[in-house]
């Protein structure tokens, strides 16, 4: 068990290393001088020289990389050109809205999508199944910012029930926090529910065709228990896998949702940084998001050993 | 006369309207008395499994019983509502299936799966259920039940899993046990043990058994009475000896004549020139050292063999014996780890692909699964001329010889323009044989080539293989797990176990006077070895 | 029984054209493609025409403009105007062009590159490890972030947006193709072709690659849909195609600041975008169900 864990953790190192190299090279290998790109169109010679000095761009590429990655590992993400702050401080001040939005969305999604998909599979071919699948295609096709604005239009502008945009820290009151996160997480959850409900349906359908389901029925087991005890327990691994994959969609969705609802989180920071060509911030945020994504999928891999006795060591 | 535990009367199950016939089964009537084993036997598509599922109420939604009744101790299961049917399943009738691996829930402990039966139908407490589960595991002779009860299915062997299935089925002492091909997925030695167990359980408890199988050896071994089905109808039923020894219906007579005998016919040794020489062949899977995970399997270990022109060498063994690995090494679908393969003095064991290619035409192979052996997107003609054209024969000439080959294997030459899905399994296997012959090979490898076929088709394809072997003076390497088939077609026989050749000799001698303990075990395990079917005709 | 004599390919085609999802989705997609192609003929004006006096007008607003000869011509802003007085209706119609170009280009490029890499990874075992580690790494960066990272380096424009969206799609295609190649190379008919002496390139083209066509068509439609969404997102965030070019994302970005007063600038292009993606996804779903249900699960 420990050796399995260790091997899985070791296996993520080359992936993270590749991500780091990729993000590093993205800026260095772009046609043109990185310092000029970073400085932007309106910079003068001294500003460009200053940036070049700061990034150590005159050093050999390999040295630059190791200096950069070394700093990252120590938690030093450099200084933001735009905000004139340490990127690590910037990230720390922006992480709460993003974390809140993501967690609320995940909770919302899983509680809705898994029962929905299971039900659709169990009632395969019925009007219920068709309805759920229809919703799933629709939900997968509605871009999150379109849903976001439609929700704002309906609930905030027309009905006036909920605040339009903005964020309230959880320390300033859970009620206000939840109220302001309700629409964003709902908007973000739609695509997510569509995706996970559909994959849950597929997984459960596949399991329902297995021989051991027939065995359970031959034992005289009730249909509810066949579904819960035999089908869902076996479909757990693919469903959890899909939830892990969905985190990639979630992270992308967070960027857009935060922009629509002006939530001052990491997603909005990313967009602001790109618009300001604030490269240290862009690199740090992308690296951080990728790291979280890899970590989540590592956790999911490890959870397999608990869900399926065949996967061990 | 005692009341039967199962009395099926006039059962008809309709197929959906797009099926190839109106009814899956039609007007089926049969009985199973207490303590009796009734075998329902038939080839694929005969409707034998549908009959069994109908009694249990486990038919797929598309299949509906439209007439007749299935009386379980006088109660019609076809008319029972869902709740009643659930109450009957497990308590009065139980079922075991073909694949013991897939029939058990892979993520639940086996003890839990036995106890589930008690949980559904009795008011036992958890500790009582566990005690009862251990008890029944002991009864089906599982080793160390106290420990095994907490194992998962994948930690058990195939035979052990089937014992668990039997334990689940019998834990509530049902009147009727339905066994749907319960030994088909098992090796022959395991099969013999499971058959013994079913018989023992049934005798001890007086259970009536409805036993579905396609294997006449198994029928001979276990049946009291036999029901023969064809195309959804019963063609004949009677006692075991009546049906097997003195069949009345022409279909049954044909089937009995098709079952290969366990007695090899007399053969004169073939003294032709050596076609292929294999020395010290080994194949190892998995890597050792820095990048391997330490798990190394020696699938074939120091195998030495030769085949003469016009001779058939059989390799028999159970699954995992390495017989197919040897075949695939010789066909160079995989590269052997060590050893030499010599074709007329050309060493092909180590040749790289580019230099190997000219020699490939000399060794051709026919695979087990006729449904996956032909590219479904290409016409039969294109499949047949692929190899000749590769070796430089003009397309017209290749097509002309493809036509005559099709006739040689008993198919119409017009079929060249058709696609594989338009042919039956047996016809496809004939096409595969024609394809192998198209490049006039020296060596033909048949890797379980008749194992997926029904017994009547199997007999015909065996005959064809033997025919072309003689006609083209081919050296044939015949891989099989089926001793009956091996007895009929092979001149010499090699027995493999766990990658090693344990016995080698003329077929007659190996069958009459086996030297190795494992060979003896295999021969003794072969079901129905003492029964002569029908006229007992040889190939 | 008449269908049995048809080749497997013809039978599949027959099934496709009888699938309601394919028919409805396909028709809608066709309408949108025609809309993009014949944009100038659909009662539109120059989508970049600025008219400061007609800013932020509601749908159905009528006014007059002077044409090149100085004559007053009546015009209707069917779907209102944006903050620069441009006709939202015309911008939406022309916007279909950019969306379709991006969608199709991304699908075509990612499938071509992904197929080549996937076949190499699936057939040549010694390269497999390296290639798949690189793909894992690429897939570890969430798609939109990767796209954002790529566009942030180039000057905004159609080509850079297409590249930015293509990069994260490639590893997905590679995985799909590789998994098919790995399973097909074990098929007995492929092994039969090996013993028939068929050379590797021909073997791949003849026996292996045809099996990737159906899943790739399905995957391709889904790539088109997702590329259209990502392009709209990038433009909406202001980091995609330059704001003066009429794209659905740009129209919506334009409407953001005045959304609470003039929601039509966001809702109408949003609706058309959603409908487009929906019809492509329906087409994809229908194709998957008819072409290749087995491979549906792999994606």
- How would you classify the quaternary structure? heterotrimer
* Biggest sheet, spatial arrangement of strands of chain B: 6-7-8-3-9-10
What is the fold named in CATH at topology level of chain C? MetI-like fold
Task: State which percent range the strand residues of chain C make up.
Answer: under 5%
Write the layout of secondary structure elements.
The complex is a heterotrimer of chains A (313), B (539) and C (299).
Chain A (H helix, E strand, L loop, with lengths): L1 H27 L5 H6 L5 H11 L5 H13 L13 H36 L4 H15 L2 H15 L15 H35 L2 H8 L4 H38 L5 H10 L3 H29 L6
Chain B lengths: L5 E9 L8 E10 L4 E5 L6 H9 L7 E9 L2 E2 L5 H7 L4 E4 L3 H4 L6 H12 L4 H14 L5 H4 L9 H13 L5 E5 L7 H18 L2 E6 L2 H7 L2 E6 L2 E7 H6 L4 H9 L15 E12 L11 E12 L3 E5 L6 H8 L7 E6 L2 E2 L5 H8 L2 E4 L13 H11 L4 H14 L16 H13 L5 E5 L7 H18 L2 E6 L2 H7 L2 E6 L2 E7 H6 L4 H9 L14
Parallel strand pairs in B: 3-8, 3-9, 6-7, 7-8, 13-18, 13-19, 16-17, 17-18
Antiparallel strand pairs in B: 1-2, 1-4, 4-5, 9-10, 11-12, 11-14, 14-15, 19-20
Chain C lengths: L7 H9 L3 H18 L23 E6 L5 E6 L10 H36 L1 H16 L2 H9 L6 H27 L3 H8 L4 H9 L1 H27 L11 H8 L8 H28 L1 H4 L3
Antiparallel strand pairs in C: 1-2
Protein name (chain C): ABC transporter permease
InterPro entries (chain C): BP-dependent_transpt_permease, MetI-like, MetI-like_sf, OppC_N
Family (chain C): Belongs to the binding-protein-dependent transport system permease family.
């Amino acid at each position: 068990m420990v050796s399995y864990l260790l091997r899985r953790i070791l296996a993520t190192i080359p992936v993270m290393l590749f991500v780091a190299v990729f993000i590093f090279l993205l800026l260095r290998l772009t046609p043109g001088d990185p310092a000029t790109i970073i400085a932007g169109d309106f910079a003068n010679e001294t500003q460009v020289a200053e940036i070049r000095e700061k990034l150590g761009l005159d050093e050999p590429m390999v040295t630059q990389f190791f200096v950069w990655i070394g700093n990252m590992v120590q938690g030093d993400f450099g200084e933001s050109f735009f905000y004139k702050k340490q990127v690590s401080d910037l990230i720390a001040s922006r992480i709460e809205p993003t974390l809140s939005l993501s967690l609320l969305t995940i909770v919302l999604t899983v509680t809705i999508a898994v029962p929905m998909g299971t039900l659709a599979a169990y009632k395969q071919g019925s009007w219920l199944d068709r309805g759920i699948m229809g919703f799933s295609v629709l939900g997968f096709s509605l871009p999150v910012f379109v849903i976001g604005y439609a929700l704002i239009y309906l609930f905030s502008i027309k009905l006036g029930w909920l605040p339009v945009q903005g964020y309230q820290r959880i320390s300033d009151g859970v009620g206000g926090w939840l109220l302001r996160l309700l629409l964003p997480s709902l908007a973000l959850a739609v695509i997510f529910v569509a995706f996970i409900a559909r994959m849950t349906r597929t997984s459960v359908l596949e399991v329902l065709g297995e021989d051991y389901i027939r065995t359970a029925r031959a034992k005289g087991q009730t249909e509810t228990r066949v579904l819960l005890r035999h089908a869902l327990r076996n479909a757990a691994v693919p469903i959890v896998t899909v939830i892990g994959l969905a985190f990639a969609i979630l992270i992308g969705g967070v960027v857009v949702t935060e922009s629509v609802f002006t939530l001052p989180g990491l997603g909005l920071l990313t967009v602001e940084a790109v618009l300001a060509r604030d490269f240290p911030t862009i690199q740090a945020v992308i690296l951080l998001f990728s790291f979280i994504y890899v970590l989540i999928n590592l956790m999911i891999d490890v959870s397999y050993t608990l869900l399926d006795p065949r996967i061990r060591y | 006369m005692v009341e039967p535990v199962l009395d099926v009367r006039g059962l008809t199950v309709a197929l959906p309207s797009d099926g190839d016939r109106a009814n899956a089964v039609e007007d089926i009537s049969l009985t199973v008395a207490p303590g009796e084993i009734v075998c329902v036997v038939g080839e694929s598509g005969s409707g034998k499994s549908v009959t069994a599922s109908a009694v249990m109420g486990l038919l797929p939604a598309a299949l509906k019983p439209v007439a007749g009744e299935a009386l379980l101790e006088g109660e019609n299961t076809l008319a029972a509502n869902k709740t009643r049917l659930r109450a009957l399943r497990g308590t009065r009738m139980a079922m075991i299936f073909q694949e013991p691996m897939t029939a058990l829930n892979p993520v639940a402990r086996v003890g839990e799966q036995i106890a589930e039966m008690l949980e559904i139908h009795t008011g036992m407490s958890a500790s009582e259920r566990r005690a009862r589960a251990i008890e029944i595991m002991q009864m089906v002779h599982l080793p160390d039940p106290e420990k095994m009860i907490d194992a998962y299915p994948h930690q058990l062997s195939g035979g052990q899993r089937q014992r668990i299935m039997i334990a689940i089925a019998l834990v509530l002492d049902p009147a009727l046990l339905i066994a749907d091909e319960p030994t088909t997925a098992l090796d022959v030695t395991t099969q013999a043990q499971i058959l013994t167990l079913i018989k023992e359980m049934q005798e001890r408890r007086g259970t009536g058994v409805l036993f579905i199988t396609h294997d006449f050896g198994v029928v001979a071994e276990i049946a009291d009475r036999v029901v023969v089905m064809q195309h959804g109808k019963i063609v004949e039923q009677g006692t075991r000896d009546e049906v097997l020894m003195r069949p009345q219906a022409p279909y049954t007579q044909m089937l009995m004549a098709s079952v290969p005998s366990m007695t090899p016919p007399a053969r004169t040794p073939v003294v032709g020139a050596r076609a292929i020489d294999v020395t010290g062949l080994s194949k190892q899977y998995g890597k050792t050292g820095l990048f391997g995970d330490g798990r190394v399997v020696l699938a074939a270990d120091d195998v030495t063999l030769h085949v003469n022109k016009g001779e058939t060498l059989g390799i028999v063994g159970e699954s995992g014996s390495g017989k197919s690995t040897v075949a695939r090494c010789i066909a160079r679908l995989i590269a052997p780890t060590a050893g030499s393969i010599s074709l007329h003095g050309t060493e092909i064991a180590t040749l790289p692909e580019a230099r190997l290619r000219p020699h490939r035409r000399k060794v051709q192979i026919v695979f087990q699964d006729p449904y996956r052996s032909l590219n479904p997107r290409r016409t039969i003609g294109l499949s047949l001329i692929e190899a000749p054209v590769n070796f430089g024969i003009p397309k017209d000439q290749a097509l002309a010889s493809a036509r005559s080959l099709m006739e040689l294997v008993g198919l119409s030459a017009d079929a060249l323009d058709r696609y594989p899905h338009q042919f039956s399994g047996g016809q496809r296997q004939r096409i595969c044989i024609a394809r192998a012959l198209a490049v006039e090979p020296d060596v033909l490898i048949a890797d379980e080539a008749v194992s997926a076929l029904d017994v009547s088709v199997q007999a015909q394809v065996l005959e064809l293989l033997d025919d072309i072997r003689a006609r083209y003076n081919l050296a044939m390497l015949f891989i099989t797990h089926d001793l009956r088939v091996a007895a009929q077609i092979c001149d010499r026989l090699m027995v493999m176990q766990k990658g090693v050749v344990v016995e080698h000799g003329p077929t007659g001698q190996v069958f009459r006077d086996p030297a190795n303990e494992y060979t003896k075990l295999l021969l003794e395990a072969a079901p129905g070895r003492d029964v002569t079917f029908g006229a007992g005709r040889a190939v | 029984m008449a269908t049995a004599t048809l080749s497997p390919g013809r039978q599949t085609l027959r099934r496709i054209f009888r699938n309601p999802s394919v028919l409805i989705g396909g028709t809608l997609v066709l309408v949108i493609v025609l809309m993009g192609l014949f944009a100038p003929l659909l009662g539109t004006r120059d989508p970049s025409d600025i008219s400061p006096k007609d800013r932020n007008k509601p749908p159905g607003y009528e006014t007059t403009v002077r044409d090149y000869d100085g004559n007053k011509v009546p015009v209707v802003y069917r779907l209102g105007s944006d903050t620069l007085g441009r006709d939202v209706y015309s911008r939406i119609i022309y916007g279909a062009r950019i969306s379709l170009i991006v969608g199709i280009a991304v699908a075509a490029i990612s499938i071509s590159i992904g197929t080549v890499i996937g076949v190499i990874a699936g057939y040549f075992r010694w390269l497999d490890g390296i290639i798949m580690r690189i793909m894992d790494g690429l897939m570890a960066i969430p798609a939109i972030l990767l796209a954002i990272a790529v566009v942030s380096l180039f000057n905004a424009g159609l080509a850079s947006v297409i590249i930015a969206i293509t990069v994260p799609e490639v590893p997905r295609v590679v995985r799909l193709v590789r998994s098919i190649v790995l399973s097909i190379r074990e098929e007995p008919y492929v092994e039969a072709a090996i013993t028939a002496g068929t050379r590797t390139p021909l073997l791949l083209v003849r026996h292996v690659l045809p099996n990737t066509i159906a899943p790739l068509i399905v995957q391709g439609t889904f790539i088109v849909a997702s590329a259209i969404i990502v392009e709209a997102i990038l433009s909406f965030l202001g980091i995609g195609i330059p704001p003066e070019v009429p794209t659905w994302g740009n129209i919506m970005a334009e409407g953001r600041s005045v959304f609470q007063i003039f929601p039509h600038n966001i809702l109408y292009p949003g609706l058309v975008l959603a409908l487009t993606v929906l019809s492509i996804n329906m087409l994809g779903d229908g194709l998957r169900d008819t072409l290749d249900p087995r491979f549906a699960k792999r994606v």
